[in-house]
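A note from the maintainers: we've had questions about how concatenated examples are separated. There is no special marker in the raw files; a new sequence line simply starts the next protein. For clarity in this README we add a label.
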Amino acid sequence: MPRHYAIGNGSMLINLDRYTRIRDLYYPYVGQLNHVGGYPCRIGIWADGTFVWLSDDGWRWTPGYVPDSLVTRVLAEHDKLGIALEMNDGVHQRDNIYLKRIRVVNKTEGEREIRLFFTQDFAINENEVGDTAAFYPHNRTVFHYKKNRYFMANGLCGGVGITQYSMGVKRFHLAEGTWRDAEDGHLGGNSIAQGSVDSTIGFRMRLGAGEADFCYYWLSVGDTLEEVKRLDRYVHDNDPGKLLDRVQVYWQRWSNKLDRDYADLPEAVVSMFKQSLLLVRTQTDVHGAIIAANDTDIMNYNRDHYSYMWPRDGALIAYAMSMAGYHETVVPFYQFCAEAITPEGYLHHKYNPDGTVGSSWHPFMVDGEPRLPIQEDETALVLFSLWQLYRQSGNIELCQSLYGSLIRKAAKFMRGYIDTELNLPKPSYDLWEERYGIYTFTASAVYGGLTAAANFCGLFGDKERSERYTKVAESVKSGILQHLWDEESGRFVRGLFRQDGVWVKDMTPESSVYGIFEFGVLPADEARVVSTMRVLREQLTVQTGVGGIARYRNDYYFQRSPDIDRIPGNPWIICTLWMAEWEIECAKSPEDLAAPRQTLEWVTQRALETGVLPEQLDPFDGSPLSVAPLTWSHATYVLAVVKYLNKAGELACR
């Protein structure tokens, strides 16, 4: 199940499902640790002897976020129960506090008592062993803890706090959890439980015919009991409703901090652009890691997840955010990379949010021969995107601070990691982490990274190094044009692979070849680039009503159809947007922007109702596949919009 809502502040991230239930809670890093792990923290309503969970049938849902904000705005109506709920969820922009506001409307003609129930289903530190849940009488809250992780739940309904509570065992022997205890409208009142436990708290309100009132629920998260007590008091002192309103205003100011001319883009595209900025922010840890995705349901497929920082994804996301004017958001990313880079000058496959090296399937030994288990594009793109940040922000102090620790180390590695016979980077794994060889995308990224290194050396007066890196970059460009261009097919190939002792061209149509123009090897309108992109558009367009561009021909990942001629692969958001970027860069008149504008609208239409973008789509019904939200999808949308606006402004001035 994709995550319909993501809310956070850079040290705590909460994912909500379509019923606004907490499904993931990451702390103290975005992406690490998940203290809920995909289980639902249920919300239930009792009225007139009838009980329903928000996930039960009978509800009509109107989903969404408050415009330009990381606060949800969701309407749920239940005709049989005679109740309507207007809900807002948010995480405080500074403090680790989750806030939920529910406006309850009595749609019947009589006065009634209504009870609301909230369950806390934690697996603290990502396991259910040794948790404690307890009622805390000193401030009438319920808190869960293990070691140095504390979670304190509280609320107000009509000015009154928790009226019922119960702690119990869950998912052990025959015990389902205290949420079952709520279904008769009464909780047993057990005040403590230990082991694999959950808790449920209840609130009451009385509403006359047609009346409405507010119920507030909040969760304070910290490392000690004293810390969560302090945060709980902070909510009380500032009023939870007013606090949530301030969260909303903060994010609206953040997403609108620049005064932009959105040219002729439709309102839906503009809204999606701001939503994408905000969702990228939720996946960006304050310590620098930019996480690929935090939808834990992907673990059902391969027992691993996307809650890692891939340097490539991070670099391209940072590039997009810099181009959009959010430089300060991604500065910690480069500091993270400077600390993570190896003494040899390369970055590993992926990293955990705390900076430790992540899991990998790239071997150190193949057929008895040692192999460097890297994707070289990841190292190269960090320098490429850092140069873009400098160009956009002029932050010379940051770049100087990284000159020795990151820039020169990475450049030295790339300069030495060259096949001198081909004038191309030595083999490494491709950007999809699937095959080993020399790839057009990687070679283009290395060209962009070496060019950035030469620019930095020139910026700091290091002339000899600048000339050295420029020379190597130009030799790589020469190698690309000589070995990765195929005259017969009229396009750049995916790459080269070793077979029987010789290099063989991989002729698979591959969307990532867009790197040829993106990273500056050739202009987008150069004849060979134009020919390549036209062939790729023809070969990789999904021939169904869904449309979009596949990663490459016969893409196996989540493959939905063997009909490769019609469906070369599932449509990917980023690959479809790469084609739009090429069309934007080639545009010579305002009329030429019609096609990429349609692509931006297509992406907007393919998002979930809440504006969340997945990694890929089902080619038959357009439903999300793999993880959602995917940070790279949202960042690529941001970059495409910025490029569109820049080009529209340029053409208007001619």
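[label: protein 2]
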Amino acid sequence: MSFSVRLRALSLLFILGFAIIALRLFFWQIRSADSLAAIADAQHFSTLVIPAKRGEILSADNNVLVANQPAFMLYADLRLFKNNPAETAEKLTPLLMADMNIPATDSAEPQKVASDLKENLTRLLGQEGSFWTVLRHNLSRKTKEEIANLKVGGLGFEEEQTRFYPEASMAAQLFGFVGSDENGTPKGYFGLEGYYDRELAGRPGLKKLERDAFNRPIAIGSEFNEPSEDGRSLLTSVDRNVQQIVEEKLQAGMKDWDAPEGTAIVADPYSGKIIAMASFPAYDPANYAFYPENNYDNPAVAEAFEPGSIIKPLIMAAAINEGKVKPETVCDRCAGPRQIEGGIIRTFNNKYHPNTTMTETLENSDNTGMVFVGEKLGKEKLLHYLDIYGFGGKTGIDLQGEEAGTFDPGKDWYPLDLATLTFGQGIAVTAVQMIRGYCALANGGMLVTPQVVTSVRDGDRAVEIKPKIGPRVLSEATTKTIAEMMVSVTEKSPLHFPRDRIAGLSRFKIAAKSGTAQIAIAGHYAQGKTIGSVIGFAPADNPKFLLLVKLNEPAVRPWGSDTAGPIFFAIAHDLLLYYGISP
């Protein structure tokens, strides 16, 4: 090989070497600069996260519904812990179990919880290769002192904050709870806690101290402090007294009618503000882990159901608004069952009323009369009104977990589907969607957005969340007419609304409608299972409140008027007294 060839080969070798070095320098200094800086920072500094104080949740009268209280984190410094892990776990388990305050629910088995706790403590205390480990969060001061009295070397405490509920489990599904994310950071789940988590959580602070190779703070080393920012507080439209009335009456009614699930909502029909919202079975947000996860969802916004007859006033209002019928319009097709392409429409009790008026159609909850109304309204307008009422879309309420229900105005609708729509079959809605639709009937025709939070407070500053009112979906004249028709339903309905059973209630004009719907499961209706509901407003001519009551699968009687009805009027009676409304 000639000298020139060897020289060229050596030159190429040097160039290749320089290229490799340059690439490695580029990788270290450019591509990996951030990660290497983070590693260096972790080696040179000790970082302490300073938690932010979570914002409070307040009632409409500024009383605290969800607050914070001091708690303690129990940890073990494994460099100082010299005891037997199993023996220490044996001592700690009964103290931690007492602190848990486990509720008496089917899902909470104290013996299994204690066994799992002891096993986990033993594992944490016996792990190798770690300096320290967290054993338990959110201990009470009493439990902290009891553990400290054990005088176990290596155990220590750090103060933290935990949620406190002055009203116990009131409105649990409305508020939600605070748990931990995958990194162990407090995080809000469900309800207001989930929806407003960023506002409530605030921003944690950081404190960095420079340390030496032995992990000791350097007295003259660098120190970096970033203060925490406390979370914002929420002022809600919830009235504690109304919430208590609703919860007491709903639970009593569920027991009377042997219903496993129930929901009730009270709203201001003019603004859409939620005054009370309750569902059972519920849970204790301070001990949520011991309850079935199914209890966490708020059925008022997360559970869709076929509404049945409570949708009839909305369909009737649409037909009146379009000038297709009047209260005195006579149905000339209501003398018997209606043969519709694809099936037969019957009344709920197989009784028929020839030449029935539209008011009587609502009074009798007559399915054949509602099919007549739907035919007068026409397919296009029927679907249009259900669409603008908001069915098939989320209401926009400020609660986590809202579902949209099932209604698509653009799908292929067969004649039988359109017929059953008029009396609430073939469509699935949420309770809060029904509240929004009925707000338009009660307030003069304006669609409103339901809301729970009225302002967000940051120290002395408050940002008001104004009600979202509009668009108009019905004329004011239409809503006055439908209100009068619904008052007639309450006063004359053969469905035996139990209004007269409650002293003094018969002197008030209450506009209401009951509904009984079958439960659709896997494409067919479950035999013998129903959802009973009543929705309405009072006083009918100048509504102070809108109220919905819904019971799932009442075992004693299937009809909404018989089961949800007594609860509805019991709550309405107390609300009329509470608001000081004269007959």
